[in-house]
């Protein structure tokens, strides 16, 4: 395979951390996500759908309950933002396949910028491309798991509107580019990336105000003076605000709801941008394009952006992933699966279960407190943005 290298356009001056992050992750030639499968033990990092089939199954329960609350529409757009390997969607479809009315209503839309991952999603959903009949140019792609039509798009705006819509964003927001600001004697300055003499890249503070300062001011309006006074650094993510506006407007016009799951905080995020290569933290500036970059998600800013975009939507949560999965019955699911499996499968089910709900307040842990398993249970938060018509979604009641 020929290796593409990232070439940054400095245009005569330093670039923002957000520009750097966007190039590193999604540059069409050499971005981290663009040419390969980065997930799982062999890859760079592991995500909940890859940890256990139960994750996608539980999301399936939530989606089906929302569909019930929406009045069981005969057609619904089920959109997933950044579906990775497509594992979550495959487990969701397998888990709900017995519920015929629900399955028959689905039109799946995968929002994915990476051609390599689109291909992998196509394979994992066992998709076949139907031949166009009678000169019909609308070729359909069908997932043979459930006979559901699937299509791919580069952005949410491209998903056709007009049908009730359910959107899933798992570990999508954390990949959106953030701007970083640092408090200096002359006020808040944007952190920029420049070419150094002795090493390829270095951080510098911008000498003048930058356009992203407007977003910083916007973000600070939503926070109390006390919250800001404690901080020396602030991250803001204009793309997250923009995406939330699009989601809220879509849900307001078409009905339905969105589920956002990610690691993050219910407030301003200070300095969280990190790089992970082969399951290890590495320097953000080292060998760009070869490591994943991600930042904590500012759930409070998602709430404010959704509320600002439309009066027809309401935001619930965030709650912790362990509360969310617990309320959907993951402990019953793991028990049912354990009844019918080999010793090896039982071990992997148990490990997977604790990775999903463990850490801190693992609610179903019956062992000693100091032995609570480490997992994604409390660092990962879950938020729902729903059309007010739908009432309160399950898990948030
Ligand atoms: N949800 C998956 C993958 C998370 S990684 C999981 O939990 O396993 C982030 C995903 O979002 C990848 O599929 C990546 O290619 C995609 N992605 C990142 N930035 C994107 C963008 N701006 N537009 C569309 N897809 C994007």
Automatic annotation (TrEMBL):
Reaction(s) catalysed by this chain's protein: L-arginyl-[protein] + 2 S-adenosyl-L-methionine = N(omega),N(omega)'-dimethyl-L-arginyl-[protein] + 2 S-adenosyl-L-homocysteine + 2 H(+)
Compartment(s) of residence: Mitochondrion
EC number(s) from the headed UniProt entry: 2.1.1.320
Pfam families documented for this protein: Methyltransf_28
Domain of life: Eukaryota
Record keywords, A-Z: Methyltransferase, Mitochondrion, Transferase, Transit peptide
SUPFAM superfamilies found in the cross-reference section: S-adenosyl-L-methionine-dependent methyltransferases
GO biological process, one term: mitochondrial respiratory chain complex I assembly
Recorded GO CC terms: mitochondrion
GO molecular function: protein-arginine omega-N symmetric methyltransferase activity
Function per UniProt: Arginine methyltransferase involved in the assembly or stability of mitochondrial NADH:ubiquinone oxidoreductase complex (complex I). Acts by mediating symmetric dimethylation of 'Arg-118' of NDUFS2 after it assembles into the complex I, stabilizing the early intermediate complex.
UniProt family annotation: Belongs to the NDUFAF7 family.
Name by which UniProt lists this protein: Protein arginine methyltransferase NDUFAF7
């Amino acid at each position: 395979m020929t290796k593409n290298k990232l070439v940054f356009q400095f245009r005569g001056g330093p670039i923002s951390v957000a520009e750097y992050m966007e190039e590193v992750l999604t540059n069409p030639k050499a971005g981290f996500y663009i040419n390969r499968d980065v997930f799982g033990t062999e890859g760079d990092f592991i995500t909940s759908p890859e940890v256990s089939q139960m994750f996608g199954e539980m999301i399936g329960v939530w989606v089906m309950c929302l569909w019930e609350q929406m009045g069981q529409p005969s057609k619904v757009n089920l959109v997933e933002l950044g579906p990775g390997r497509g594992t979550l969607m495959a487990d969701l479809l397998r888990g709900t396949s017995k519920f015929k009315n629900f399955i028959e209503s689905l039109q799946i839309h995968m929002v994915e910028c990476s051609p390599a991952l689109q291909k992998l999603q196509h394979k994992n959903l066992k998709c076949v491309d139907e031949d166009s009949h009678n000169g019909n140019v609308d070729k359909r792609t069908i997932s043979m798991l459930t006979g559901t039509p699937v299509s791919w798009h580069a952005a949410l705006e491209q998903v056709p509107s007009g049908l009730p819509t359910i959107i899933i964003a798992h570990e999508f927001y954390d990949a959106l580019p953030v701007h970083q600001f640092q408090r200096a004697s002359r006020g808040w300055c944007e952190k920029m990336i420049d070419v150094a003499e002795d090493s390829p890249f270095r951080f510098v503070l911008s000498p003048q105000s930058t356009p992203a300062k407007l977003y910083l001011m916007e973000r600070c309006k939503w926070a109390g003076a006390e919250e800001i006074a404690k901080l020396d650094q602030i991250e803001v993510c204009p793309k997250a605000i923009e995406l939330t506006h699009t989601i809220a407007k879509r849900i307001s016009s078409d009905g339905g709801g969105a589920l956002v799951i990610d690691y993050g905080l219910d407030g301003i995020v200070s300095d969280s941008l990190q790089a992970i290569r082969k399951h290890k933290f590495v320097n953000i500036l080292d060998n760009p394009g070869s490591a994943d970059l991600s930042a904590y998600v500012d759930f409070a800013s998602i709430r404010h952006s959704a509320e600002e975009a439309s009066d027809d939507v309401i935001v619930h949560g965030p709650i912790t992933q362990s509360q969310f999965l617990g309320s959907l019955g993951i402990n019953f699911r793991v028990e049912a699966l354990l009844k019918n499996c080999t010793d090896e499968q039982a071990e992997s089910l148990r490990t997977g279960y604790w990775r999903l709900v463990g850490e801190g307040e693992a609610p179903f842990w019956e062992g000693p407190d100091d032995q609570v398993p480490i997992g994604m249970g409390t660092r990962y938060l879950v938020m729902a943005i729903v059309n007010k018509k739908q009432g309160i979604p399950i898990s948030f009641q």
